[in-house]
TrEMBL record:
Gene3D superfamilies: Medium-chain alcohol dehydrogenases, catalytic domain (3.90.180.10), NAD(P)-binding Rossmann-like Domain (3.40.50.720)
InterPro entries (UniProt xref): ADH-like_C (IPR013149), ADH_N_2 (IPR041694), ER (IPR020843), GroES-like_sf (IPR011032), MDR_fam (IPR045010), NAD(P)-bd_dom_sf (IPR036291)
Listed name of the protein: Enoyl reductase (ER) domain-containing protein
Domain Enoyl reductase (ER): 23-340
Pfam families according to UniProt: ADH_N_2, ADH_zinc_N
Top-rank taxon: Eukaryota
This protein's UniProt keywords: Oxidoreductase
Length: 345
């Protein structure tokens, strides 16, 4: 793009490391300048960001901890996360101008992406672009890999999903139904419970905020116990689930959202159940199973086309609303996958 000019580039910066729940004050809006040109010889691509993803794992990047699978955000720097973007300049033979891609990008209007290894071109044109941050993106693949590879489901098994209306949980429940399982989900509002039962096809669902005793709640829905627990919450929910697991049950630990905003995480009291019930509890990352990604993409797209899976999004409009949308994840403000729309063209 010879002679390209600089343009104004709205950005969201990370302010400082934190120990409690994230707030909007932990982020800062700024307008900088962006050169609409890729440095020659860099192998990079320049993109215009269209949609950004808000994901709970990003809270872990807001603490000063370098022992994780992904490094922390740096104070004063642009926040990064998964996004769908349009290529506007390229010095990489694998990407051309006007390609639509998804992968890690900046929380800003324009991003220069130097590490292009994780970028994927969007080849399927009959599915909404924002779905590549959910149904066909990291959350969808997390649900797919976690359910099939970690949970090892069998037809007729009894499945419990916490945070079941979220980006991952809503898909785990639907995959379990397609696999012939009985599925119950928990969520944080009566509206979400209604969505689980009447739109997503769960057999049963309950509002955990209305349950003073989670152990008794699970016994009500699973009188004979739980075969598979897809864990997104942790804390009291995990403790109650352990008491209700059947022998040789499986627990896939995907997230612990109830613990993300606390500096002193709750301990788990019922771990002895792992021993005498011979339960397998395993944490996992979707990146452990990337060899399955092409299979996942093909199957999930076809399920969607056939109407076998539906997907629910919560879209915030404008980069300026990204901090509020992200913070809302930790109080259950969103219904479905939280996405921020930066531009639709």
């Amino acid at each position: 793009m010879e002679g390209a000019k600089a343009v104004r580039n709205k950005q969201v910066l990370f302010r400082s490391f934190l120990t409690g729940a994230p707030t909007e004050e932990n982020m800062q809006l700024r307008t900088a300048e962006a050169e609409l040109r890729v440095p020659a010889g860099s192998g990079a691509v320049l993109v215009k960001n269209l949609f950004l993803s808000c994901d709970p794992y990003m809270r872990g990047r807001m603490r000063e901890y370098y022992g994780s699978y992904i490094p922390p955000f740096q104070p004063g720097k642009v926040i990064e996360g998964f996004g769908v973007s349009k290529v506007i300049d390229s010095d990489n033979p694998n990407f051309s101008v006007d390609d639509i891609v998804y992968g890690m990008t900046g929380w800003e209007e324009y991003s220069l992406i130097l590490k292009v290894e994780g970028l994927r071109k969007i080849e399927i044109s009959d599915i909404p672009l924002s779905y590549y941050l959910g149904l066909l993106g990291m959350p969808g693949f997390t649900a797919y890999a976690g359910f099939y590879e970690v949970c090892s489901p069998k037809k007729g098994e009894l499945v419990f999903v916490s945070a079941a209306s979220g980006a991952v949980g809503q898909l785990v429940g639907q995959l379990a139904k397609l696999n012939g399982c009985f599925v119950v989900g928990s969520a944080g509002s009566n509206l979400k419970v209604d969505i689980l039962k009447n739109k997503l096809g769960f057999d049963e669902a309950f509002n955990y905020k209305d349950e003073p005793d989670l152990d008794l709640a699970l016994k009500r829905y699973f009188p004979s116990g739980i075969d598979i627990y897809f864990e997104n919450v942790g804390g009291r929910m995990l403790d109650a689930a352990l008491l209700n697991m059947r022998p040789h049950g499986r627990i896939a630990v995907c997230g612990l959202v109830s613990q993300h905003g606390v500096s002193d995480p709750e301990g788990i009291r019922n771990l002895a159940c792992l021993i005498f019930k011979r339960i397998r509890m395993q944490g996992f990352l979707q990146s452990d199973y990337l060899h399955l990604f092409p299979e996942f993409l093909s199957k999930m797209a076809e399920y969607y086309r056939q109407g076998k899976i539906v997907y629910i999004e919560d879209i915030a409009e404008g980069l300026e609303n990204a901090p509020k949308a992200f913070v809302g994840l930790f109080s259950g403000r969103n219904t479905g996958k939280q996405v921020v729309c930066i531009s639709r063209d």
